[in-house]
Design goal:
Elements lengths: L3 H11 L2 H13 L2 H8 L3 H15 L4 E4 L2 E4 L1 H28 L4 E7 L1 H18 L3 E7 L3 H8 L5 E5 L8 E16 L19 E4 L5 H13 L4 E6 L3 H11 L2 E5 L4 H6 L2 E4 L5 E11 L5 H13 L10
Parallel strand pairs: 3-4, 3-5, 7-8
Antiparallel strand pairs: 1-2, 5-11, 6-9, 6-10, 6-11
């Protein structure tokens, strides 16, 4: 059996980017013919490439059957790694394109859902109107994804809440205050009320955030403290499009960070049901590296700070 080092050396020495593309398409489509058509290779070329990949890997990666092919368990285990490699290659292509074109620079920006809706949907178009020569590559992530990207230096800026532990070499500036709010579709019967009591919400149907989330913990605590029983819709999700659709179409209500749906509230698609008490949470802000910031990155970070003057972070140590 080959050692980990020898397998790694073989992959580095003999592997090619095309192999990654072929492997992913075969797993996705389950057909040599269709994979070849998608990639622009002949069927025989795909078959030869697959044979080469399996020889290089030292184990079968696909099972052959009358309907086509299907990935082995080994292949299934490898696919997340291969997809990550493919994404990094495509990100690299974007960076090369930015350098070769008229762009003055590029910024790898990552943001949470709250950061995108609460800050970027308004700010980024304004930034590009003033700085069309700067390209921004935006990706979405939460919690550990953000921290991992910062620790690996895979991003230049991050828009999120202050993390529990600030990664070395990064600094956080709070920009947009936030709170947990009761949210509903724009036609909800309680929308026009100046103030609503929690006891009145027992008659409504709720769509809950996942267990363990900040919103779910606070809602459970509130319901217990006030002695109320909330009616649950039989779906638990973080999906903003799904939450939006169900609140509008089914008349459901949800307890969410306001910044997660700020854009929809400002557009009038969703509304905040006003309660007597506010439930403040950590604000949205920008994480910036403490050194080696390029010009494009500095311009974008300064633009965020200018258009969103630093908010008070009552939850900071």
């Amino acid at each position: 059996m080959a050692s980990v080092s020898s397998i790694s050396n073989r992959l580095f020495a003999q592997g090619r980017f095309r192999h990654i593309q072929v492997l992913l398409k075969l797993a996705e489509l389950g057909s040599v013919k269709r994979a070849g058509e998608e990639i622009g290779m002949t069927q025989s070329a795909v078959t030869q490439t697959l044979a080469y990949i399996e020889k290089m890997a030292g184990v079968p990666l696909f099972l052959r059957h009358a309907r086509g092919i299907s990935p082995t368990k080994t292949c299934v285990d490898l696919l997340p790694v291969v997809r990550n490699l493919m994404q990094r290659i495509e990100d690299g292509a974007e960076l090369l394109h930015a350098r070769q074109s008229a762009h003055a620079g590029s910024v790898r920006l990552m943001a949470s859902a709250s950061g995108i809706s609460g800050l970027l949907l308004q700010t980024l178009p304004q930034f590009h109107a003033m700085n069309p020569e700067i390209q921004v590559q935006l990706s979405e992530g939460e919690n550990d994804d953000l921290l991992l990207a910062m620790s690996r230096k895979e991003v230049d800026l991050v828009v999120c809440r202050r993390p529990p532990t600030t990664p070395k070499g990064w600094a956080f500036t709070p920009l947009q205050s936030d709170k947990l709010a009761v949210i509903a579709g724009h036609r909800h019967r309680l929308g026009g009320r100046h103030s609503v009591e929690w006891a009145e919400l027992q008659e409504e149907r709720w769509i809950f955030s996942p267990a363990g989330s900040l919103a779910r913990r606070r809602l459970d605590e509130l319901a217990d403290a006030k002695g109320i029983q909330l009616k649950a819709y039989p779906l638990v999700t973080r999906s903003i499009p799904m939450l939006h659709a169900l609140m509008v179409q089914e008349g459901l209500i949800a307890f969410l960070p306001l910044n997660v749906v700020r854009h929809d509230v400002e557009m009038g698609d969703l509304i905040e049901i006003h309660m007597r008490d506010d439930h403040l949470i950590s604000p949205i802000g920008v994480m910036v590296p403490t050194e080696d910031m390029g010009l494009a990155c500095t311009l974008l970070a300064d633009f965020f700070k200018f258009h969103h003057p630093p908010a008070e972070d009552v939850f900071a140590d």
